[in-house]
Automatic annotation (TrEMBL):
The keyword Iron applies. It comes from the Eukaryota. Residues 219-320 form the Fe2OG dioxygenase domain. The keyword Protease does not apply. This is Fe2OG dioxygenase domain-containing protein. PANTHER family: 2-OXOGLUTARATE (2OG) AND FE(II)-DEPENDENT OXYGENASE SUPERFAMILY PROTEIN-RELATED. GO terms for molecular function: 2-oxoglutarate-dependent dioxygenase activity; metal ion binding.
Amino acid sequence: MAPSAGFTASEVSPEPAPDSKALLEMVQLLVTKGITEIPQKFIQPERSRATVLHPPVETCDLAQLHIPVIDMTGLDGENKDQVIADIAKACEEWGFFQVLNHGVPPSLMRDMRQLSEEFFALSPEEKEVNKIKPGTSVGYGRLFETSTTVANWVDRITIWSYGEQKRTEPCMPPKPERFSLVVAEYSHAVVKLCIRLMEILSMTLGLEPYTLGEHINSKTVGLRTSFNYYPPCPQPELVLGIMPHADTSFITVLQQDKTPGLEIEEDGQWILVPPIPDAFVVNIGDLLQIVSNGRYKSVMHRVLVNNTVGRFSIPNFFMPSKETIIQPLKELLSESNPPLYRSFKFAEYIAGFYIKPLTGRRLIDSFLLDPR
Ligand SMILES: O=C(O)CCC(=O)C(=O)O
Ligand SMILES: [Fe+2]
């Protein structure tokens, strides 16, 4: 199992930062060389491969959707209670839902998508200006991988787009020139959405709207934004874009493009999260699973690729500061619902990746009070 993808990789990469040889193996470069057979290190063992690949462009039939779609305008109308109940159900049963009319302007989302394309169209030298530096948690390069894991078919740049770490280690690429301006506008809008979702999620738990925001201290939160690019793959059935993982965030707000690829695990089955224009995919991260004392699930997900169309996605990981204490909300605990997880500083969670990065066990389970 791969480490989870929120803070994770760059913040806590258990291996030294990638060297120039690793950068030569960026997927995009392999594809440009016109390879027809993929290098061994990308080949998944048979048991991990997908049995069904999605056609590169899927028309999304809303009636067929499994994962709930929430129109957030409903939160301002007379159906508010029903919408809140729908979100609660989505968090309990799926750990994933999609939101429409979420307040982030579609034109800004399109600008970010365009920015990704422009970044990945730069020459290797221009992209490498921002390669991950030893001891830092952000930049361009291969993440989530050690010499013993199978490599993911994805290229990625991760930045701090909001909060204290944006000021101390922003890692904004100098090109495209408008990068930091667009990211600043987008991250403000996404953080605003996350803070609103905190209020809504507090209500779905039967609590006062400010409860979750207070617990993770909204004033010190940060946002990590990744730009993922999954180039077309000559042998898509042998690889994964990203291996199964759960996110270390509080919540993740993901912008995917029109090419399907994201799947979530439900009762041992992999279920597609179909692309919906202008929607965000919201998923519960490990930290909210802990804070909700296991009521809301941080669900495993993975990404498939195809052989004709590149896929871009932009996950935004909503994070507390390293000093924030994470623990099950006391308001939710009772004799019949005792705490499942111990209390810890978020910094300790991150450090877990350095100690036993790839034991095959989920990091979240090591914070159980009664480990199974
Ligand atoms: O590309 C996607 O749709 C999902 C990416 C993801 O799960 C991650 O970066 O953590
Ligand atoms: Fe993820």
